[in-house]
């Protein structure tokens, strides 16, 4: 019944042509990259300022010493988790419809995971001493665990993108004769002498399967460990044993939304309507409903349990969230960014590509602000009063350099995805063909 | 704990000025204030200093030169990490006596080269939710025996010494501020911008026991004035207090000395007789700072 692979009518040549035609460096691409590069340079100027003058150029202070850099880091790690859910969990369960979009999910995962590491560096007071983490690293610090798992996740995600792409890289090597020399050379070396033998496929499938299994615990650990950066402290609002699963479930919401947005972009700009179909959006929408429901469940736990018991510090924290200082952002994020969108997606017309993408953008924005709500308010409610400091220290508002540096991280993600999607086909060609042949033989 | 005599005091003031307090006076150390060359003009301003073989000599200010810098840093780093053997430093804060004079804060900020908004020691106005009164509470680093800040530090830049003091090595700190997040007492502060007097302090060798010079992009906090303790003196805040709020001493000796009255009392008696408590003992951090409750009449 699989309608998603509605391309039984397409010839192999047509598929090759459709899916390879994006591998080029057209004028549009150059314009887009030029725009991104200029924006990035502007943002990097602010980072230069920060390096010169210290973190004082940000809105951070002794009482909110982790702000939008750390929130953004959590958001990036969260979004990167989707690669694991889509390609690994669904892939191993032989959910066929994900195959054409699995590579997009992997691209999103890899780009966000790579940049997450850089965001941490922008938050460091002494980035020049980064090597100290390796020279003097101590295993009992969750930061050291985080670095270890994020690096591992980037490597495994990279391999998970690369190894199943071998047949397609070989196709690029064989069919793309009008690309620059260096690119041909790159395909030649990256394809590792692939020539579609049964043995090669067997090997590839075996290694892919191994990676798919391996990535599940690693993906779970990166976000669990990231949550532990907070949960391992004695601060109320952070000191919660369900922070690990709470973060992981939230991660899938953000990741699904990001993949839907990327799907929409590729479908329209790369003219892939035959391959990334309306049915894909419908199913991604349903997946989003599922993960959003789980996340709502965890959110209820996070508020009701401490709120009901209301020990002094927790009561204050929950009160600030529900009615106090942070309530506007809290309700906007919970209702506007999570509950209402997911109720809307329950209706089929809302799972059509355009409405679903718009909803996904809202969810993704909500997910970003949700991370700010996790990171910042807890610090503004310390156990001992905030006194004898400048007035502004009872609150937190990010400065222009801080926002610009955060924007830079998004620009980098878009750049990475753009370049990778120009070097390689975004839809796995050999898998599409395999599915089609499989169907035609039935 | 031995009390500072007059000689000690004048010496200390001078060395504070020089900003090389710990470095220059330690007995038996490898570092020295090198020679009094006659070519320098004497200023007539004499000070007493301890030599390496533990002799007290008087020299002219103009003749003082710090010893070899690199060696000093290495030595100071090693000494700073090891701490003072056989000691377990504790502080007792008598809230009934605090009148918010803030001399302690001032002394602390000047010793550690802190900007006005940076507090190793912060005198807070605390509300008593039951009695609806308020009282003043000086809050320092609690020098916990189970310090959450030390556990989370990724690079061992903040650590617990054998004498119970939790210190920071700002030569190693990467500025991740995980310790700031982890400290339930909000005892830590960060050099968000170029520290105070950074140009004047540029040539001063870093002493982690004083945590001076401060460095941009690193965390700083109360060090129990470890540099003072090394010379058998009371911390800056303790001796600056005019109201007898602070007691400081060694738990192993079971003796603490009041910084104002210089009276030495038995620690265990002081704690027992005054119903002493620690801050948020339920967190299991095991602070080394004890508080004696505020008196109702003075609330």
Describe this structure in a few short sentences:
The complex is a heterodimer of chains A (442) and B (299). Helix content of chain A is 72%, strand content 0%.
Write the CATH architecture name of the largest domain in chain B. Answer: 2-Layer Sandwich
Radius of gyration of chain A using CA atoms only: 23 Å
Strand arrangement, major sheet of chain B = 12-11-10-3-13
What general outline of chain A do the C-alpha atoms trace?
A: globular
Number of distinct beta strands of chain B: 13
Radius of gyration of chain B: 19 Å
Query: So, CATH architecture of chain A?
Result: Up-down Bundle
Head-to-tail CA distance between termini of chain A: 12 Å
Which secondary-structure class do the elements of chain A indicate? mainly alpha
CATH topology of the largest domain in chain B: Alpha-Beta Plaits
Note the quaternary state here: heterodimer
Q: Do you know the CATH topology of chain A?
A: Formate dehydrogenase/DMSO reductase fold
Q: Percentage of helical residues of chain B?
A: 10-25%
By helix and strand content of chain B, what is the structural category? alpha+beta
Largest interface: A-B, 46 and 45 residues
Mean pLDDT rating of chain A: 90
CA(first)-CA(last) distance of chain B: 31 Å
Q: What fraction of the residues of chain B are assigned to beta strands by DSSP?
A: 15-25%
CATH homology group of chain A? Formate dehydrogenase/DMSO reductase domain
Task: Characterize the structure shown.
Chain A has 442 residues and is mainly α. Chain A has one domain (20-428): Formate dehydrogenase/DMSO reductase domain (Formate dehydrogenase/DMSO reductase fold). Helices cover 72% and strands 0% of the residues of chain A. Chain A has helices spanning 12-20, 27-53, 68-80, 82-92, 99-123, 132-135, 142-162, 166-175, 181-190, 198-231, 243-269, 278-309, 312-322, 327-345, 353-380, 400-423, 429-441. Chain B is of the alpha+beta class and 299 residues long. Chain B folds into two domains: 6-82, no CATH class; 89-298, Alpha-Beta Plaits, CATH 3.30.70. Chain B contains nine helices and 13 strands. Chain B has helices at 6-18, 21-25, 69-82, 103-111, 148-152, 178-182, 226-229, 236-240, 267-273, and strands spanning 46-50, 56-60, 89-94, 122-128, 133-139, 158-160, 166-168, 188-190, 219-221, 246-250, 255-258, 264-266, 289-292. Chain B has a five-stranded mixed β-sheet. In chain B, strands 1-2 form a two-stranded antiparallel ribbon. In chain B, a hairpin with a 5-residue loop joins strand 11 (255-258) and strand 12. Chain B is globular. The two termini of chain B are 31 Å apart. Chains A and B meet through helix 6 and helix 7 of A and strand 4, helix 5, helix 6 and strand 8 of B. Chain A: Belongs to the NrfD family. Chain A: Its main location: membrane. Chain A: The chain crosses the membrane at residues 29-48, 68-92, 104-122, 142-163, 210-231, 243-266, 287-308, 328-347, 354-374, 403-424. Chain A: It comes from Marinifilum breve. Chain A: One of its GO terms (cellular component) is plasma membrane. Chain B: GO terms for molecular function: 4 iron, 4 sulfur cluster binding; metal ion binding.
């Amino acid at each position: 019944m699989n309608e998603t692979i509605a391309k039984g009518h397409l010839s192999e040549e047509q598929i090759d042509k459709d899916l390879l035609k994006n591998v080029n460096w057209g004028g549009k691409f150059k314009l887009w990259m030029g725009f991104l590069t200029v924006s990035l340079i502007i943002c990097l100027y602010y980072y230069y300022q920060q390096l010169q003058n210290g973190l004082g150029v940000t809105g951070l202070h002794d009482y909110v010493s982790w702000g939008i850099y750390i929130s953004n880091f959590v958001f990036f790690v969260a979004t990167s988790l989707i690669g694991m859910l889509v390609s690994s969990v669904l892939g191993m369960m032989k959910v066929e419809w994900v195959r054409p979009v699995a590579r997009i999910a992997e691209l999103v995962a890899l780009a966000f995971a790579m940049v997450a590491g850089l965001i941490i560096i922008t938050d460091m007071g002494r980035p020049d001493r980064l090597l100290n983490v390796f020279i003097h690293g101590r295993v009992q610090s969750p930061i050291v665990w985080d670095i270890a798992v994020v690096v591992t996740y980037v490597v495994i995600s990279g391999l998970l993108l690369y190894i199943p792409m071998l047949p397609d890289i070989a196709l690029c090597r064989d069919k793309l004769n009008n690309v620059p020399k260096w690119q041909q050379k790159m395909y030649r070396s990256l394809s590792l002498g692939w020539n579609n033998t049964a043995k090669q496929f067997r090997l590839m499938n075996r290694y892919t399967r191994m990676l798919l299994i391996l990535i599940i615990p690693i993906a779970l650990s990166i976000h669990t460990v990231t949550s532990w950066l907070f949960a391992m402290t004695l601060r109320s609002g952070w000191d919660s044993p369900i922070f690990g699963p709470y973060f992981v479930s939230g991660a899938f919401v953000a990741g699904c939304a990001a993949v839907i947005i990327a799907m929409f972009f590729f479908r329209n700009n790369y003219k892939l309507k035959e391959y990334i179909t309306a049915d894909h959006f419908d199913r991604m929408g349903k997946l989003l409903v599922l993960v959003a429901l789980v996340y709502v469940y965890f959110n209820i736990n996070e508020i009701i349990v401490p709120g009901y018991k209301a020990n002094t510090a927790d009561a204050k924290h929950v009160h600030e969230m529900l009615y106090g200082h942070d309530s506007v952002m809290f309700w906007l994020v919970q209702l506007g960014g999570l509950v209402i969108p997911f109720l809307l997606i329950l209706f089929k017309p809302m799972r059509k590509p355009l409405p679903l993408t718009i909803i996904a953008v809202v969810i993704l924005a909500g997910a970003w602000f949700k991370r700010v709500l996790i990171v910042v308010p807890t610090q503004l409610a310390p156990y001992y009063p905030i006194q004898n400091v400048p007035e502004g220290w009872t609150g937190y508002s990010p400065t222009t350099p801080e926002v610009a540096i955060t924007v830079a991280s998004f620009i980098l993600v878009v750049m990475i995805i753009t370049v990778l999607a120009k070097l390689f086909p975004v839809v796995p060609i050999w898998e599409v063909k395999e599915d089609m042949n499989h169907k035609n033989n039935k | 704990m031995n009390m500072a005599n007059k000689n000690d005091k004048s010496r200390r003031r001078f060395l504070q000025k020089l900003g090389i307090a710990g470095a220059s006076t330690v007995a038996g150390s490898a570092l020295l204030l090198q020679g009094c060359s006659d070519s320098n003009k004497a200023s007539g301003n004499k000070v007493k200093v301890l030599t390496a073989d533990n002799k007290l000599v008087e020299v002219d200010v103009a003749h003082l030169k710090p010893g070899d810098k690199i060696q000093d840093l290495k030595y100071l780093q090693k000494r700073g990490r090891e701490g003072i053997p056989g000691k377990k430093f504790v502080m007792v804060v008598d809230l009934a006596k605090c009148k918010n004079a803030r001399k302690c804060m001032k002394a602390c900020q000047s010793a550690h080269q802190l900007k006005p908004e940076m507090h190793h020691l912060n005198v807070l106005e605390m509300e008593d939710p039951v009695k609806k009164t308020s009282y003043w509470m000086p809050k320092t680093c609690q020098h916990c025996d189970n310090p959450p800040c030390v556990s989370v530090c990724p690079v061992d830049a903040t650590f617990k010494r054998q004498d119970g003091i939790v210190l920071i090595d700002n030569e190693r700190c990467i500025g991740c501020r995980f310790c700031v997040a982890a400290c339930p007492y909000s005892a830590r502060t960060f050099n968000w911008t170029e520290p105070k007097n950074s140009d004047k302090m540029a040539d001063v060798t870093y002493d982690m026991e004083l945590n001076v010079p401060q460095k941009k992009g690193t965390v700083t906090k109360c060090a129990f004035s470890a540099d003072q303790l090394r010379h058998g003196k009371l911390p800056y805040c303790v001796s600056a207090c005019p109201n007898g709020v602070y007691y400081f001493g060694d738990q192993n000796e079971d003796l603490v000395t009041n910084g104002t009255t210089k009276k030495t009392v038995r620690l265990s008696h002081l704690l027992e007789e005054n119903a002493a408590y620690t801050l948020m003992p339920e967190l299991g951090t095991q602070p080394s700072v004890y508080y004696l409750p505020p008196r109702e009449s003075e609330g």
